[in-house]
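User: I'm writing a tutorial on reading structure tokens. Could you give me a worked example: one chain, its sequence, then its tokens, then a sentence or two explaining what the tokens reveal?
Assistant: Sure. Here is the example chain.
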Amino acid sequence: MRLPMRILGGPFTGRTWREFLYLLTGLPIAAAVFALMVGMTAASAGLLITFLGVPLLALTLATARGLGVLERARARALLRLAVAEPEPVRPPKGKTGLMARVGALLKSGASWRQLLYTLLHFPWACFSFAAGLSVWAYGWMALTYPLWFWVIPALSDQPGLQINGDGRGNGAYIDAPVEIAVLALAGLLLVLVTPWWFRGLTTVDRLLVRTLLGPSQLAARMWELEDDRGTVVDTANADLRRIERDLHDGAQARLVALAMGLGLAKEKLTEDPEAAAKMVDEAHGEVKLALQELRDLARGIHPAILTDRGLGPALSALAARCTVPVNVSADLPQRPAPAIEGIAYFTVSELLQNISKHSGARTAAVEVWRSGDRLLMRIEDNGRGGASAGEGSGLAGLAERLESVDGLLLVQSPAGGPTTITAELPWRD
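And here are its predicted structure tokens:
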């Protein structure tokens, strides 16, 4: 039922009318832009033999960048296509002034791509304007013909709409009821096809805008790596603060208390040997606790079993400390890079902590295997479900850390459970 209603309602949707408006406004805007940019490009090319040609060419490129802002805004408003700004024009380090700016513009690939867009878009805008408007106009004209066909004989000596004539009144006319109905049916089909026709035409516009007016793939990748680097730095700083806090509140506090206790025991050694022995015994207990806390802290930084025996045994040891029974299955014929092993280990560690604290699960399972050039981990539990990787959650932070190394985190956790979390990491030897 949805498909027929979708087809019948297609010509009246907001998307169809926005795309139609994009096609209609594209021709006048493209014509004006084409005339301006051809004129400026021709003038700058003609003046290149003089000093004026270089700054004029830079001005042409700057104008193209400004017009690109307009086209991106039009695509965002009418096509719902969000394209990022291209890489900015940056003069070389240590160089300032007009000539440095001119040189940077001339070397900017993004500026040349936007100039190319202004030249290529005009012929396509001419075609898409004519093709879109023709289909729309003929479709609605034929569909509504039964409502206005009587106007033709009333205002002229023709019996109806002429479909093929010789200019002297001879030809075929659509005036019979059956012919009128067939024409209306053809118009209905054309109107129903119009949304898909508009969509096909604007697909080319989307491609042009995304390819020529957005950042290059290299620039986009550089920005992504910069964001990932920021995530890694933030994570590292958070880990350092956690280690500092654990040292300050745990082992350091115990060692301070131990030093004070041993100092008091030293003072009482000659006066009250029994009390001093008791204090030394208490200090011995504090030493054991401090050593255990330091071991736990070292394990949290990088467990020795992970370095010595690999990911499978390390995850088994990790599961043994979980408050929920965990079944571990690791099918890894060889070991990935140490950095990937560490990220995988701490990913599973954090997810098992979430299961212990929040899930209410009775059992859990961890499965690790290699698929092609990816390391995959699946963590399942039969708890209450409802886990989300939404913004602000612990899983969101974990997903960001995985993305920083080209990883991926998928969460399936319906209310009532079960919860299945799949993590992917690149396999690096």
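What the tokens reveal: DSSP finds 14 helices and seven strands in the chain. The first strand starts at residue 161 and ends at 165.
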